[in-house]
Amino acid sequence: MFFNLPGLAMRNVRESLKPGGKFTQVVWRKREDNPWLHDAELCVKAIVPVVSHEETDAVHCGPGPFSMAGPDMVSEMLQSVGFERVQFERFDSDICIGRSMDEAVQFAMELGPAGEVIRLAEEEGERLKPKVIEALKEVVSKYAREDGTYWAPSSAWFISAYNPIV
Known about the structure:
The protein has 166 residues and is of the alpha+beta class. It has a single domain, classed as Rossmann fold. Helix content is 42%, strand content 21%. A three-stranded antiparallel sheet has the order 1-3-2.
C-alpha cells in the first residue's frame, strides 16, 4: 500500500515467484469502510488546516493506506505485470484500536490519514494538538467496550494472484 511505484514492486514480486506460485496480500478497503481511520481523519481535518504534499517540505508517508483499496485498479495493475487469476475476498472484522481512551486517541493520531494531516501542518498541527486530542476522545468513545478497550469495525481485501506457468 505504501509503494511509490506499486506496478514495479508487483512486477518484482511476480518475478520472484516460481511458475504457478500464489501471491497473497491484505490491503485496506476504502476509507469509508474503515471508520476507525476515516472518522479520525475527518475530525482532524475539521480542526487542522489541510496542507497538501506540494505545499510543504514535511516528510509524508507517500501513497498511504488506501492506495490499493480499488479492486479495478489493483486487478488491472496486477494483470499488467503478468499476474493471472486475480481474486478479491472482502474481510470485515473489529480491530482493537486501544486498551484505553488515551491509547485509542494516540493510535488515531499516529497512524493513517489523521496523523498525516497533523504532520503536514507542522507547527500549526502541533499547536492544535490539544484541541485535536479532545475532539478525538469524542470520536473514539463510540468504540468503547465494557471492559475499557476500544474496538472499531474495519474492512480489508484479501487479494490473491498467480504467476503463470510457462
